[in-house]
């Protein structure tokens, strides 16, 4: 028996080496856009763009290799959309926490993920939160990402009378973004593999050729690639030498934990079902190993200089191509590591080319809304509050808080409380305490 067969059970799962390699390449193409989009978002914090691009490749590469060898699942990992926006626009932008400290918090969250996985707490939290809120959170983050894309494209701007309004579509950068949105949308409709990545690069090239964007490549150097490596500030994240471990930092860790948890569980269920790897009773084999791979990749990402690493729903494209084992994930990881050597070129891509990708990714995150029972007000009201408060308050934490509190109250009012709801009410109480604290701080 070969090493690959002993490690991945390729034939036992009805696959082949050629199929697994093709599946890995397919998954990589569908999620390669993260190499361009993640740096575009995180660089708004002042982080070196080329360094973030390199960190993105490294974190994704290591995460995929861990998933393949440790858990043997055809699931790829990379810095998560949504959490990168929370990192950049809420933690650093709104809360004014230095990006080095924010990376320290990502590191601490990764360590906590491992501890909570080992003792089974992550699995317990999953069982306490209604699936409708899972769906609403995913869609709310999609709206959040799309709103950021619309803003970066200049399509949506601030307006004193109506809060937001239509931007100046006569601007060259806005026109380029609209052209890019059309290109990406057509490629998606035609189901072109790697359509988002191809669309970003194609839009950038058109921008340079038509004079709508500036071609300004920077010198390629190791210093640029390592600009964010080992820059995390763990003592500051712990509050050492300052005001101590405050509620704000606890809130950030809480959001990192919940969003990462929901993102992973949703992806795991969807991809595992598609690959036929879910047990008849609905359980996912080696779930702890999957969560450990994710947590370890998050730690690696924080050390390299990027936000939380999560499982990617784009992994389903590789499963559709026949991927059934961790070898698919290993191939994706190797391709990300190979991309590491051209990562600094991400800095030449204009924001007008990446903004359409944010809009399109946000649009594709709306599908979970069909899983919500909108006829049941106990479910529908918390789901709606979660959905709208995430983008409108520019905070995933606020969306989580409104949803959990509303669900707990309405469950109590409808007399639908069961014994296992104790953790749900504990979480609701924590969120209420958070709002009380914020009121006093204000």
Task: Provide the fold topology.
Elements: H1 3-8, H2 17-31, H3 34-42, H4 49-71, E1 77-79, H5 83-94, H6 99-119, H7 121-128, H8 131-153, E2 156-159, E3 163-166, H9 172-189, H10 195-209, H11 222-225, H12 234-238, H13 247-275, H14 287-304, E4 309-311, H15 315-320, H16 326-339, H17 351-364, H18 377-392, H19 396-413, H20 422-441
Antiparallel strand pairs: 1-4, 2-3
Compact overview of the structure:
The protein has 442 residues and is mostly helical.
Let me know the largest β-sheet.
2 strands, antiparallel
End-to-end separation in angstroms reads: 66 Å
Q: What is the overall silhouette?
A: globular
The percent range for helix content is 55-70%
Strand content: under 5%
Number of domains: 1
| SSE arrangement, N to C | HHHHEHHHHEEHHHHHHEHHHHHH
Please state the average pLDDT score.
81
Tell me the strand order in the biggest sheet: 1-4
Q: Are there runs of 5+ residues with pLDDT below 50, and where? A: none
């Amino acid at each position: 028996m070969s090493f690959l067969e002993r490690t991945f059970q390729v034939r036992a799962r009805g696959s082949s080496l050629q199929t697994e390699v093709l599946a890995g390449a397919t998954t990589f193409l569908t999620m390669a856009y993260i190499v361009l989009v993640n740096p575009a978002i995180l660089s708004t914090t002042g982080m070196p763009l080329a360094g973030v691009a390199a960190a993105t490749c490294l974190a994704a590469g290591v995460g995929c290799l861990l998933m393949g060898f440790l858990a043997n699942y055809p699931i790829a990992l990379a810095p998560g959309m949504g959490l990168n926006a929370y990192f950049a626009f809420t933690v650093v932008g709104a809360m004014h926490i230095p990006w080095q400290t924010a990376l320290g918090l990502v590191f601490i969250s990764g360590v906590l993920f491992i501890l909570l996985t080992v003792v089974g707490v992550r699995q317990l939290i999953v069982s306490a939160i209604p699936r409708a809120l899972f769906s609403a959170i995913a869609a709310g983050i999609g709206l959040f990402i799309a709103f950021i894309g619309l803003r970066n494209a200049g399509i949506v701007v601030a307006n004193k009378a109506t809060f937001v309004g239509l931007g100046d579509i006569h601007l060259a950068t806005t026109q380029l973004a609209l052209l890019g949105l059309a290109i990406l949308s057509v490629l998606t409709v035609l189901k072109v593999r790697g359509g988002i990545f191809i669309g970003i690069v194609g839009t950038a090239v058109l921008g340079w050729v038509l004079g709508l964007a500036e071609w300004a490549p920077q010198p390629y150097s190791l210093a640029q690639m390592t600009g964010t490596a080992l820059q995390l500030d763990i003592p500051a994240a712990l509050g050492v030498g300052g005001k101590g471990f405050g509620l704000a930092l606890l809130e950030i860790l809480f959001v990192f934990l919940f969003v990462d948890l929901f993102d992973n569980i949703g992806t795991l269920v969807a991809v595992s079902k598609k690959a036929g790897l879910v047990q008849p009773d609905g359980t996912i084999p080696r779930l702890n190993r999957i969560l450990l791979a994710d947590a370890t990749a998050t730690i690696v990402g924080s050390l390299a200089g990027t936000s939380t690493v999560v499982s990617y729903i784009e992994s389903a494209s590789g499963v559709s191509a026949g991927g059934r084992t961790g070898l698919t994930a290993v191939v994706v990881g190797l391709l990300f590591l190979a991309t590491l050597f051209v990562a600094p070129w991400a800095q030449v891509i204009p924001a007008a080319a990446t903004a359409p990708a944010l809009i399109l990714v946000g649009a594709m995150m709306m599908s979970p809304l069909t899983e919500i029972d909108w006829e049941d007000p106990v479910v529908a009201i918390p789901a709606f509050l979660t959905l709208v408060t995430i983008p409108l308050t520019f905070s995933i934490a606020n969306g989580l808080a409104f949803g959990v509190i509303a669900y707990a109250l309405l469950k109590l009012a409808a007399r639908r409380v069961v014994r296992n709801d104790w953790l749900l009410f504990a979480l609701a109480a924590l969120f209420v305490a958070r709002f009380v604290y914020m009121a006093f701080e204000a």
